[in-house]
Amino acid sequence: MLIESLNLGRPLDGEVALVTGAGRGIGRETALALSALGASIVILEIDDSGKSTEKAIWDRGGQARFFQVDVSDPTAMEGLKQQAIARFNRVDIVINNAVTFVVKPLVDYTIEEWDRVMAVNLRGAFLTAKLFLPSMVAQGHGVFVTMQSGDGMPYMAPYFASKVALRSLAGSLSQEVGNESGISVFCFGAGMVDTPAIREAVPRLAPLYGLSEQDFIKQSAPGGVLMSAEECATGLAGCVLHAAELHGQEPAAITGLGLLGVKTSEWSSADPAAPVRAKAEPAVADVADSLADLIAGLRNEYESLGLFQRQWYKRTLKQRSGMSLDEWSDAASEIRKQPAGAARYIPALRRLAAYFAQLESDARGYIHDPTRLGEAIAALEDRRAVAEKAASVLG
Predict the structure, then answer these.
(1) CATH class of the 13-259 domain in this structure
(2) Active-site residue numbers?
């Protein structure tokens, strides 16, 4: 296992992790990874595929208990809680991975199909929060994770709507429990991962997009390559180990892999656009020009990406810098036209610089080729310099 090759020891000894949808794919690999780190695992799955995960954990010397349960059923989940506590005494980590979807145009969904997607994907996370968060708060320790995907995309509208809602749910919960509770809440971005669900969905989705299956994956996955479920689960395990640092955030698999020092060469996000050089003159007009050039470069990069990659790019920029591409374009224009009020953009510019710094860290995790890595870091350093200089000049 990848997680075992990292020689991390057993930092989760004594912890109990509940993983929903753990019969296959990311859920199964996450259960195996957390078990390898020492956690006892509560496996939740709607069918008997969870038995295989349970057996795999026991065969590797771990402890696990499989419960066949529908995560959207309040009565069944209450019974599950009682059985899990009776078996393990506590639950410290909750991974809300269970998911369902239907591939078709939104107007063709039945009411029952819509309700089922929302029940499993969203109500399931509500129920795990309602059932297990209070005891985490009482013990002053815990990790609660929801799983996000892209924003609205054609032919899987309820699925993506539920995933956006899970992002919001995690954001709300993180603020409700606060920073001093000992509870860490975050929404994990798995990305495009090679799972049975993806392999079932692509043959149905690709024709709707007018693409071959291969072209669909090329346009959807970073670098045109699906991440393996094991890599994704290792990234999630890394985020769990560093959960206190990620409270209230939306880390991706690459974040967790980077925190564990894992480098992969098979997949990557799109390469940064050509470097944007900061201008030497400190005048506000020059700052506005540099910022406008920077945003134009980001927009060109955004437009070169595939459909799914665009959603990640747009959301990450907004989340980390606080402003969208359009808002940054307006800011550059306003700085030039009304320099007297430009100082109000200083906090946002500092966040933009931090965004590029984080991308530098990400790049070191997912770009293995030294030449490509050097080019990417140089481009990102130049972008960060533009934002830092703008904040300095305007201050």
Answers:
(1) alpha beta
(2) 159
